[in-house]
Design brief:
The radius of gyration is 17 Å and the shape is globular. Strands 1-2-7-6-3-4-5 form a seven-stranded parallel β-sheet, with helices on both faces. By secondary structure, the protein is of the alpha/beta class. Helix 3 packs parallel to helix 4 and helix 9 packs parallel to helix 10. Helices cover 35% and strands 13% of the residues.
Length: 297
């Protein structure tokens, strides 16, 4: 378990609190109680979002790249020790570091990107300058991506499109740039409507996809795939979109029980947005443990 408490690439503060919140919910203890040999490698330095007025289209990009490199090194050390990795973000850019750390192993890597958003934006395509909805574009070295962030790993691009499966992607949430990229690139997509119809079947189909038949299967779980009205958890307060929590948890459990799972990254959790008294972070923690322990109960 590797904590990366950062909101450097976010729209606003809050996500830097997520690793501590998951630990406070008993994540490490529940894993061990479930029979998982769990090693806690601690948290990196907290980095709270602040506006970058000198770099408005790619805010805090230098710091984001530094955090991603540090994450990649920490993940690489764990991989070298023979461990699967559970990376607790932090904003979505943390996932670039997870992928880079596994790619450095030299084994083949595939990524199931469980997110309503494809994160295929680049600084010139969206005015907000927020890097956490640009992570996939940087892993694929899309035109216009920030070079410091593209070049954080052992090679460029970090991933090829055919190594990626977008799971629970919502076309209605996509920017024009993202829609164009998905039409242009050989990225497999399982749309959110299909996951909503039968979460377990959709997740099983993802695991059978030729593109994810790699030595090391990585899952990037962005909690903003959960409808904010159903269960407020994420930085993104999108209402009446995405998946009900139960559907997201059901699909995630199937993905985590894959025998090829080598790493999972949890991102976009903002504890400040969680509903008082609902126990939503504790619920998420229990469901993560059930999936990682290979239990349906």
């Amino acid at each position: 378990m590797i904590g990366v408490p950062t909101s450097a690439g976010a729209f606003s503060p809050g996500q830097e609190q997520a690793p501590a919140a998951l630990r406070a919910a008993g994540l490490i203890e529940l894993l061990r109680d479930a029979g998982v040999e769990a090693h806690d490698h601690g948290d990196s330095e907290i980095w709270r979002w602040r506006p970058d007025r000198e770099n408005r289209r790619a805010q805090n990009s230098r710091r984001v790249a530094e955090i991603v490199r540090d994450t990649a090194e920490r993940v690489g050390d764990a991989v070298g020790a023979g461990e699967a990795t559970l990376v607790l973000g932090g904003d979505c850019t943390v996932g670039i570091g997870t992928v880079a750390g596994h790619v450095a192993s030299g084994e083949s890597v595939a990524l199931v990107y469980f997110d309503t958003h494809a994160d295929l934006n680049v600084p010139e395509s969206v005015r907000e300058g927020t890097l956490d909805w640009m992570g996939m574009a940087h892993m694929l070295d899309e035109d216009g991506a920030v070079r410091d962030l593209v070049e954080v790993g052992a090679g460029v691009p970090l991933l090829r499109p055919e190594q990626v499966l977008l799971f629970a992607w919502g076309p209605e949430q996509a920017t024009p740039r993202e829609r164009g990229a998905i039409e242009r690139l050989p990225i497999e997509v399982i749309p959110v409507d299909e996951v909503r119809t039968d979460p377990s079947v959709a997740a099983a189909r993802a695991l059978e996809s030729p593109g994810v038949q790699a030595d090391r299967l990585l899952v990037h779980f962005d909690v903003d795939v959960v409808d904010f009205t159903d269960t407020p958890l994420s930085e993104n307060v999108g209402r009446n979109e995405g998946l009900a929590y139960d559907d997201a948890a059901e699909a995630l459990g199937v993905l985590l029980r894959s025998p090829r799972l080598a790493g999972i990254t949890i991102t976009e959790l903002n504890p400040a947005h969680v509903e008082d008294g609902a126990g939503s972070i504790e619920r998420l923690t229990r469901d993560l443990v059930r999936g990682l322990a290979g239990s349906d109960g």
